[in-house]
Every structure is written in C-alpha cells, then in structure tokens.
Amino acid sequence: MKKNLKGLAAAVIVLATVAFTTTKKETKKVDTQASKITWTGEKLTGSHTGTIELQEGYLNFEQNELTGGSFIIDMTTINVTDLKGEGKQKLEGHLKSDDFFGVKDHTKAMFNITNVIKKGNIYAVSGKMTIKGKTELTSFDMNVMENSATAKLTIDRTKFGIKYGSGSFFDNLGDNMIYDDFILDVNLKF
C-alpha cells in the first residue's frame, strides 16, 4: 500500500510539473490592410520613397516571446510616393522592370525568420530574404509591442542580382550612380 501511495504521489508531481510547464504557442496573423512598408532608395543626387504592400504574413510566439514568422510581399504594388504624373509612372515602371525587381517574372518577395534573440524589448531577427528569385540571409532588429511590430531593414540590392546603376559594378556613372542599399521601414499590425 505504501508503495502504491509513493507511486501515486510521484505521478501527481510529474503531472503537475507537466501541466505548469506547458508552453503557450501562438501564431498572430498580420493585418495586411493596417500594416505598412515604406521603402527609400538613394542615388548620388537625391532619393525616392514609396510603399509596397504585404500580401500575407504571420508572427509566431511562445510564452509571449517572438520565435518566428513569415511574410510575402506583393511586388506588383511598388508605389512611388515622392513623385506625381509622368515621373511617378516612369520610375514605377523602371523599378518593376528587369533592371530592378523584374516583377513580370517575380511577383512576390519573401522573408522567413530563422532565428530570434531577445535583447531587452528588442529582438535580433535573422532570416532568409528572397527577392527576384535569389535568397540571402538578412538580419535586423524588431521592436514588438502587444499588437504591433516595427523594424528597419537595410537591403543590399546587388546581393539579389539588382546591379543597375551600381557604383560597385560600373565605372563612370557620375550623377547616375544609385546606392546599393535601400531601406524598408516596416510597421506591422496584428
């Protein structure tokens, strides 16, 4: 009888331990309509800005801590916001052409989180970015609040085969040189 009580007590302790150590996992779908991605590209003589839309995305959490996520960007939505009329249409067309993002053949860009390290209220995020069919590792910091997250990504376009106007690949560009890095300011709502 004593043996049975000891065995029962041990089983209760094990069950209680498992019950209280069960991790809470949650996937939060990104509200693509409320979220915003703003891009900035710079050249020797100035810069241009615009927006691009998320097609879908989600973030994974465990015990309310970011653990992963995935995003699909609709490249057909490249929008220039600092120009109007013919200049706007011309730049949007050029950005969608094979010189830049080749949107006809590459309608989507993707980012999949592969590693997350918490640093205070900020997460160091690493993952695989796919643009124009090429995948490269990308890292950035993400600030996650209750129902939103923000991040600023610096992307070297030449790593994705986008070399048009790059001083790293072409000489004598003068005022036509376009910097290799572009910035994505990401504001997610979920």
Explain this structure.
With 190 residues, the protein is α+β, with helices and mostly antiparallel strands. It is built from two helices and nine strands, in the order αββββαβββββ. The chain has one domain: Lipocalin (Beta Barrel). An eight-stranded antiparallel beta barrel has the order 2-3-4-5-6-7-8-9. The mean pLDDT is 91.
Keywords:
8-stranded antiparallel barrel, 190 residues, alpha+beta, 9 strands, Lipocalin, 17% helix
Q: Which percent band covers the strand fraction?
A: over 45%
- Any guess at the CATH architecture? Beta Barrel
Output mean pLDDT: 91
Helix and strand content put the structural class at alpha+beta
The string of secondary-structure elements, in order, is HEEEEHEEEEE
Rg: 23 Å
CATH homologous superfamily descriptor: Lipid/polyisoprenoid-binding, YceI-like
Sheet having the most strands: 8 strands, antiparallel, barrel
Number of helices: 2
Strand order across the biggest sheet?
2-3-4-5-6-7-8-9
What is the CATH class designation?
A: Mainly Beta
Summed up, what is this model?
Helix content is 17%, strand content 53%. It has one domain: Lipid/polyisoprenoid-binding, YceI-like (Lipocalin, Beta Barrel), CATH 2.40.128.110. With 190 residues, the chain is α+β, with helices and mostly antiparallel strands.
Explain the layout of strands and helices:
Layout (H helix, E strand, L loop, with lengths): L1 H20 L3 E5 L6 E8 L2 E17 L2 E16 L4 H12 L11 E12 L2 E10 L2 E11 L3 E9 L21 E12 L1
Antiparallel strand pairs: 1-3, 2-3, 2-9, 3-4, 4-5, 5-6, 6-7, 7-8, 8-9
